[in-house]
Amino acid sequence: MFHTTRRKYSPFGEESGTFFSSNIKDGMVVGFHGRNGWYIDSIGVYVLEGKVSVSPQPTPPTNSFDTLISEVDNPQVSNKLVVAKRSGPGEEVVYGVVKELVPRGRGPWGGDGGRPWDEGVFSGVKQIFLTRGEVMTSIQIEYDRSGQSFWSTKHGAGGGEATHMITFDYPNEVLNCISGYYGSINSDEGHKVIRSLTFYTSKGKYGPYGEDIGTFFTSKTIEGKVVGFHGRSGLYVDAIGVRMQHLLGEKRPSKSLISKFFGLIIY
Description:
Layout: E1 2-3, E2 8-9, E3 27-36, E4 40-49, E5 51-54, E6 65-73, E7 80-86, E8 93-98, E9 105-110, E10 115-118, E11 124-132, E12 136-145, E13 148-151, E14 162-167, E15 175-185, E16 188-201, E17 205-210, E18 215-218, E19 225-233, E20 237-247, E21 264-266
Antiparallel strand pairs: 1-2, 3-4, 5-6, 6-7, 7-8, 9-20, 10-19, 11-12, 11-14, 12-13, 15-16, 15-18, 16-17, 19-20, 20-21
């Protein structure tokens, strides 16, 4: 049984056995997962949370397209799902886009000291300011958000013998991977922090900054870009992770009655 903002479609099959429901109060289904062999053994959904308001169906424009726009009240989402569908025989679905789902992070890698922080999702990374001694003592990031610059707070106490200002040729150069090492401070095996960081962009490599000592980590180079950082910090940068935006595909026509969603998804 499927419930939409307009009606329910169902039931398909016999209503017997154990009842289940996704029980979504505010949000919309943006994907499915499950198990199958000879049959559909189980099913689940991915939900984009937030209040959904659907605009009324507009009067068909002169180009014979009907456009339905749903807006999602969620600060971490680009907040528009757009489906354009051609009216008439065959009902050719032109495209569907889901932009910037609630992000999932890669990492953080490092120790469990300090306090957690998470800066969310931006359009891209413009600059990174590091301070370090034997270990990384602070990190501060300048982001781009729809053409406007935004500096994060400083994570870590700062200080040390070296500072590094890493400037990218944004938007012509995008950050797509970080790597580094984390390890203990001197003889304190229980306190692990970031020892070095290296940044990889669409144009090259920056670093390493610090000493490559301890346990290696990497966010891996995958098609996409870094759009945010998260981690832990106190006196040092204890741990660090990234938010990655991946390109799933290109917008292109589909003659199926079921719209194919191509777009950007955040991890």
